[in-house]
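Project standup — Tuesday

K.O.: blocked on the structure for the chain from last sprint. Re-posting the sequence here as requested.
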Amino acid sequence: MTVNHRCAAASALAGLSLLALSACGSSGRSEPATTDPVPLPSPTATKQQISEKNLGYTWPLTVDHVTAECRAGDQAVVTAPDGTTYALNDRAQEAGYEDVAAVRLSGDGGDKMSLGTLLTRTLKLCKAGR
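H.V.: unblocked you, prediction finished:
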């Protein structure tokens, strides 16, 4: 197996693992406001507007839109319309940002919605800023 094939296989396995983990503990939503998501453009900066219209069934928050941002040290945060900034990852929590649990939705089964899709999109902003 060539190096490129090994990298592709490892990437595919990592993607499947992330998908499996993001599904755990999340029962999803059967009736989101948006059932036909609008694709997000590729990030070109460390900030991007993201809304329920972009993520549809996977939108995990009680607010309908946020400004996602990658801050120094790969701190993934989202700022709600009221101006409150919430941590999406451990680095942002350690930096003192508010706990995203305050605006996190529960799925139809009562479990908290997965932050996986929103976190992945936000971490892509870190790469755009480099």
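K.O.: great, moving the ticket to review. The two ends are 31 Å apart (CA to CA). Helices lie at 3-23, 52-55, 90-94, 116-128.
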